[in-house]
């Protein structure tokens, strides 16, 4: 049905959809979708619901299976991107405490990419650097990066 998800994810999303389709009419109410999205930490719930509703051509209010899979597939894909970023950043976690020394990270990025001061400042706006030890939590950083587009 959707090229954004694999067969296993699609099967699981269909099962989740059927659990949310309380009256069996093939549509999920916006209220249930909103609760689900909020519980997943989605920031822009209203636009996500609007996007999901676009595929519903029935004239009835709600989210159909196609819209549900489209939106949830994107969220699944975004989650895997966060995991990829965290895995890449984990290399810099020398103490294995989910923290990265900002100075060491900057030096490595500058050597590898030629990153200038302005680019560094732009990148690190999302890092929430601890001023006491000059470190940041790379899990939090990866999540914030994935939410800024």
Could you please describe the fold and organization of this structure?
The chain is mostly helical. It contains seven helices and four strands. It has helices at residues 7-20, 30-39, 45-53, 65-90, 102-113, 117-124, 138-147, and strands at 27-28, 63-64, 99-101, 135-137. The strands form two sheets. A two-stranded antiparallel sheet has the order 1-2. The protein has a two-stranded antiparallel ribbon with strand order 3-4. The chain is elongated, with a radius of gyration of 20 Å.
Total strands? 4
| Number of DSSP helical runs | 7
SSE run: HEHHEHEHHEH
Shape: elongated
Low-confidence stretches: none
**Biggest sheet, in brief?**
2 strands, antiparallel
Q: What's the helical proportion of residues?
A: 55-70%
Average of per-residue pLDDT values: 83
Beta-strand content bin: 5-15%
Rg on CA atoms, Å: 20 Å
The strand order across the widest sheet is 1-2
Query: How many angstroms does the end-to-end distance come to?
Result: 27 Å
Please identify the structural class as seen in this structure. mainly alpha
Keywords:
mainly alpha, 149 residues, 60% helix, 4 strands, elongated, two-stranded antiparallel ribbon
How are the SSEs placed, and which strands pair?
Layout: H1 7-20, E1 27-28, H2 30-39, H3 45-53, E2 63-64, H4 65-90, E3 99-101, H5 102-113, H6 117-124, E4 135-137, H7 138-147
Antiparallel strand pairs: 1-2, 3-4
């Amino acid at each position: 049905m959707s090229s954004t998800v694999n067969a296993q994810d699609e099967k699981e999303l269909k099962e989740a959809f059927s659990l949310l389709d309380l009256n069996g009419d093939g549509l999920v109410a916006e209220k249930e979708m909103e609760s689900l999205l909020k519980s997943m930490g989605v920031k822009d719930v209203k636009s996500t619901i609007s996007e999901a509703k676009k595929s519903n051509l029935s004239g009835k209010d709600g989210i159909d299976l196609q819209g549900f899979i489209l939106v949830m597939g994107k969220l699944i894909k975004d989650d895997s991107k966060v995991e990829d970023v965290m895995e890449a950043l984990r290399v810099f976690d020398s103490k294995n405490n989910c923290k990265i020394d900002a100075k060491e990270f900057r030096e490595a990025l500058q050597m590898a990419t030629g990153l200038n001061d302005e680019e560094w400042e732009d990148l690190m706006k999302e890092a929430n650097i601890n001023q006491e030890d000059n470190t940041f939590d790379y899990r939090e950083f990866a999540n914030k990066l994935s939410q800024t587009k």
